[in-house]
Each structure stands twice: as C-alpha cells, then as structure tokens.
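Worked example

This section walks through a single chain of length 186. The input is the sequence exactly as stored; nothing has been trimmed or padded.
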Amino acid sequence: MKLLLLILLTSLLAAAQPAATTYRIDPAASRLTWTGHAEAGDWAPTGAVQLRQGRFDYAGTRLQNGRFEFDMATISHSDTQLQEHLRGTDFFDVARFPTAVFTLRALAAGQVVGELTLKGISRPVRFPATFSRQPDGSLRVRGTASIDRTEFGVNYNSTSFFQNLGSYAIRNDFQLAFELVARPVR
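Given that input, the structure is written out below as tokens.
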C-alpha cells in the first residue's frame, strides 16, 4: 500500500511540472558586447560579437539545456587595427577557432551555470542573469559574464605570464554583456 501511494504521489508531482518549451535565439534582435581593460589607467575598449545561433528549454521558472554559438569572425571594435589583432593568433585565433560555444546547464535563482568553449578549451562558468517573458511570448535574457581570458589560452600582455609590460599590460578578465531575445519553436 505504501509503495502504491509513493508511486501515485510521484506520478502526480511529475504531472504537475510544466512541460519544457524549446526557444530559439533571434540573432538579429540579440546583442553581445565585450569590454576589456588595461591593467593601469582607465582604457577599456568595447566592441561586439555576433551570436550565430542558440536555443534553450524553458520550463516554468528555469532555463536549461541550452547551446549558443558565437561567430568569432564578427568580433568588432571601432579601431580596425585592434579588431584584426583580436581576431589574430595573439588573442582569439579566429582562423583556427571560428566559433565559441556556451552550453547552458541551467539558469535558476538568478545564476547561470554552464560551460564555455573558447579556442578549443572548455571551462565551467557561472554568472548572474535575469530573464523575463514578453507580451509577444518571447523571452528576454540579460546579464554580464566576467571571463578570465587566460583560462582559454589568451595570454597576450597578461602580467600573469609576462613581466615589465608597463602600460601595455592587459587585465586577464573581460566582460561579456548580453541581451538575448528568444522565441518559442513552433
């Protein structure tokens, strides 16, 4: 009798969970902005990178099971020389690694948990984000991730690897601010 009651209770709880809906990112409506920082002074170049595609599952109050692809060839900055340098071997080596991937495990209680693959190296990441349901049924996801570039082999002008860089030293961390728009897959 207890076993039957336990099975019934488990079935009821499973039925009460909302079914997950798959959402696809609208790259044209989404925005990704990066900001780097000099070690000394207030120089903080900012640019953008385009999302190639992305999707995730939405189940009531959670985002989960997502995959997002970044087109690293689109990394941009208003200074074309810096832009090309970022695309080169000193930084993101776009010719060899044209895509970066973020795998979302879950976004719950305001924290994103997942894994970032950049330059063929995968590392776990965690950062704050929010999402909101829009009147048209889309979801808007916003947040800022702080990424340590040296964990992905981007060591150019890092004081962790090079000495006496003076004003050429670049902080290891950069920020990736995002505002994503996702629509349900029909």
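What to look for: The chain has one domain: 20-184.
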